[in-house]
Amino acid sequence: HPSQGVSLGGAVTLRCHLPQLAAWVRLYQEGGWSYNKGKEKEQDAAEFSFVSTLQEHAGRYLCQYSVSESAEVSVESDPVELVLTDLSYSPPSISLHPEQCVEMGTNITIRCRNKDYGATFLLHKDGSSDPLQCQDFSERGTATFTLFGVTPADSGTYRCSYRPRGYPFISSPIGDSVTLEVTPTPAPPGAAGSSRGNLVVAVVGGCTAAFVFILVLIVFFLLAARRRRMRRDECPGASPKKPEAMEFQVPSSDSEGLTYLELQAVTPSTQPPSPPAAPQPSVIYTEVAVGGRH
């Protein structure tokens, strides 16, 4: 801490985070220094501070720990790099082509230069902690970075730095910046009219579908009502009226040879015919005159 931008002569703290409580923690530099720190009380973290950094402090560091002085030492931690900025180096210049505002999908070229040193160049973007790209030693002091098919996510501010040959953990100051703005690709001619036409087609299609749906519902309900009416007409709910009996009688002025006959008059009905009833015997009334007595 801080994680970047530490200058030569500045203060920095390296912190080891331990997965369990430990009494001994070791911080060592690859190919260089080694620092041991014992704790009177077991802790889950240990800090190592450099009050005034020197060029030899720059490098890659790792941690190890043990629960006691005589216990087995743990495996090494992931490394962390301590890069120190040497303000005696001049910052690099930077250029952008095409300049500033470009359409999406364009290939962008960023060039970084320094005057005096063959070096490894790094491309930085504001808001990103790590360099985006790096390019190894350039004899002419120039590095070219290409961003292919840029999108709006590539918009932002870019800067360069370099690390002199033979000093991979010593950096120049970060140089001036360039700003890239990526705009969406404009719609081709006629695209707006085509969109409006598609909208009209979609609206008309929706209205037609709604009309057909309503029509189908109306036909369905009409057919259902008709079926219910036909079933009601066909159902023998009420018993048919009995045919009215009519009696015909010849006037009794002359009672000789009279025959009385009972007939049935049937009234037509709209109801379906009921099963035929058992035949009833005809009733015949006769009156026979015999010798003047009835």
Detailed description of the structure:
With 294 residues, this protein is mainly beta. It contains one helix and 18 strands. It has one helix at residues 191-234; strands spanning 6-7, 12-29, 34-50, 59-66, 80-82, 84-85, 93-97, 101-103, 108-113, 119-125, 133-138, 142-147, 156-164, 170-171, 177-183, 244-248, 258-265, 284-287. The strands form five sheets. A five-stranded mixed beta sheet has the order 8-15-13-10-11, with no helix packed on it. The protein has a four-stranded antiparallel beta sheet with strand order 3-2-4-5, with no helix packed on it. It has a three-stranded parallel beta sheet with strand order 1-6-14, with no helix packed on it. A hairpin with a 7-residue loop joins β10 and β11. It is elongated and about 110 Å long. It starts with 5 loop residues before the first strand and ends in a 7-residue tail after the last strand. Mean pLDDT is 78; it is low at 238-270 and 288-294.
Number of helices: 1
Order of helices and strands: EEEEEEEEEEEEEEEHEEE
List low-pLDDT spans: 238-270, 288-294
**Which sheet architecture does the biggest sheet show?**
5 strands, mixed
Q: How helical, in percent, are the residues?
A: 10-25%
How many β-strand stretches? 18
Placed side by side, the strands forming the largest sheet appear as 8-15-13-10-11
Q: Give the class from helix and strand content and strand pairing.
A: mainly beta
Distance between the termini: 149 Å
Strand share of the residues?
35-45%
| pLDDT averaged residue by residue | 78
